[in-house]
User: Fold this.
Amino acid sequence: MTTTPTAVWQAVTHNYAVYARACDEKRYDLLPMVFCPEATLAYHVAGHDFSCRGEEAGHYFSGFLARCYWTHHLIAHPTVEFDGERVRASARVTATHLQRRSDGSINRWLVRGSYHDLFVQRDSRWLIVSRQCHCLDAEGEFEASGIETFATPAWADRDVLG
Assistant:
């Protein structure tokens, strides 16, 4: 293992920030800046497991996150290991999901865990080619029925979000 150049560490950190924005603002069009199309993604989130490829991530995420009125993915600074060719990174995550029930009340589902990613460089960008997400700690339950759906952020206009 070699010392991780600052530019690589910054690129990985930026990748995580773009991922959080894509999820929280329902900007699935940003995910190609995060994942390689052929990336293998495996999520184990408090009893909700799914796997997909990078090019399918927007479809999978939108089906799940459309059931949320608001989300907040807080991703800690990653640990980054650079071998001269590839990057292994790990970051802790706390994700809050607010769902609005049909009666107007709010359900809160809070999960905590970690991302374990392998990055490769493509066209001067560092993209995730493999992800294991393990969020084993949860408060509340994700509700699948009796919930309003939101294909776009309901809490702010897209123009405001930039």
